[in-house]
Structures are given as structure tokens and as C-alpha cells.
């Protein structure tokens, strides 16, 4: 077997908040049962350290990480949520390189994250992953104002933080017509 044949697969799932990214990742993990190792950034403690929960109330156990974990070695299926948070100082190392090594070693890696921030600026981690993904699934939410498909995340109030946890208390999905900068 050559190195090329042993390569795994990188699937990227992106979109704004409220697009169902976590639900898609949980379904992927569930399809592989105990073979799947699920990772989330230690930065994200909304659901408790050890689970990923979706808004449709599905959930899966996850390992909260601040660097690439030893537990990932030799795994055939990896699922990673909120990858845009896996950057310094919240993550030690280069998550894109870490994922690339896992794929090269034969793992099927499914990664979810926000493609852009609340000011519609791309997250570099996602841009780099998109460039090397075997498949890139782009999800859309529903606009908070008009219910049409929404590709943007809007923040209700300017807090000055690019990486900030929040739910519908702080964020909304908005279409092209209704996206606005946050109130100051
Ligand atoms: Zn709209």
C-alpha cells in the first residue's frame, strides 16, 4: 500500500451561527459510534467540558482540548467542532497542520466552524482548511428578520471581542439584505 492510498479524508462543514453545524457533526459522530473521537476547543465551555450539544437537542461526548490530544493517535474517525476557536492563546500549535497530519495518517476528519466572524471577516483557520478539504459542505441558517436563507452572523451588541461565546442572547443569523454591524 502506498502513502497515497492510506490517506484519509477531510470534510469541512461551515456556515453562520444557527445553521445546524453542530447537529451535522453529532450525526457524523453517531454514525461511527465508539470509533469516533469528538474534539471541541477547551475555550468553549457552554455545554460543560465533555459534550457537544445542538440546538435540536442532540448531543455527543467530546474531549475539550487546548492542543492536539494523544487520544487522537491511531483514530480512524475524528470529529471537531468550533475549530475557529482552536487558535492561540486557546490552542497550542497549528490546528490546520495537526488535522493535516491526521488525514495523512488515514483518518476521516470532519471539521465544523464559522466561516466568517460577525463583521463578515473570514476566519483564517477555515480559509486554510477549505483549501485542503476533500469536501466542503456550506450550510445556511434562516435570517432572524425575514426567514430567508442567511449566510452571515450578526452580533447584537459590540463587545470588541472577535472570539466570544454566545447564543441568541448575543448573535443572530442574517441574510445579505438584513446583516448589520452591531449596535454600539
Ligand atoms: Zn433577511
Automatic annotation (TrEMBL):
GO molecular function annotations of the record: ATP binding; thymidine kinase activity
Alphabetically ordered keywords of this record: ATP-binding, DNA synthesis, Kinase, Nucleotide-binding, Transferase
EC numbers: 2.7.1.21
Enzyme type, top EC level: transferase
Entry keyword annotation includes Cell inner membrane: no
UniProt-annotated catalytic positions: 82
The keyword Amino-acid biosynthesis is annotated on this UniProt entry: no
Catalytic activity: thymidine + ATP = dTMP + ADP + H(+)
SUPFAM superfamilies per the UniProt record, alphabetical: Glucocorticoid receptor-like (DNA-binding domain), P-loop containing nucleoside triphosphate hydrolases
Biological processes annotated in GO: DNA biosynthetic process; thymidine metabolic process
Superkingdom in the source lineage: Bacteria
Residues noted as binding substrate in the record, renumbered to the chain: 171
InterPro entries xrefs: P-loop_NTPase, Thymidine_kinase
Coiled coil spans: none
Record family assignment: Belongs to the thymidine kinase family.
Protein name: Thymidine kinase
Organism: Lichenicola cladoniae
